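User: Okay, second chain of the day. Same drill as before: sequence in, structure tokens out.
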Amino acid sequence: LEGMGVTVHLNVPTLDNLVDESNFNNINCKIYSGYPLATFSAAVHNSTQLAVKRFVDIVGALVGIILSIPVIAITAIPLLLESPGPLFFKQERVGMNGRLFNMYKLRSMYKDAEARKAELMKHNKMDGFMFKMDDDPRIIGSEKKDKNGNPKGIGNFIRKTSIDEFPQFWNVLKGDMS
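Assistant: Same drill. Structure tokens below.
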């Protein structure tokens, strides 16, 4: 809860163990309904430090975008030849303090990947909301194998080299990510 910026009320006797471990710098002790409670709210930050951090994010994002445009352009050719459809994949994610935003990635799966996920759930190696499987057939070109049987399609190349992450510089520039 602390990391998400949620205000927390604690009964004072439990406070001893938590104060030393907390990152909060705004603690307020009051009596609520006859109970002594300490209220922790999100840490107060130095506005100058926040401005410098945002400036560094903007400069870093612009440099990242400039450097990644040629790589994305070159990668787009085989990607769109192997799998017509959008170049970028957009997915809703949860950011700081529970704020929702759209995260952008270079598409490494066929455009019907989400629809095909239900039929592949029996192969899921993760618990909960995560999905992971070996040799995922939704990855573009996963049916192509080298002489050792390893996938050699463009989708696997994009993932192996993390080129799919380059569009996230746009998220940094927008302020969704840092």
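The mean pLDDT is 81.

User: Thanks, on to the next one.
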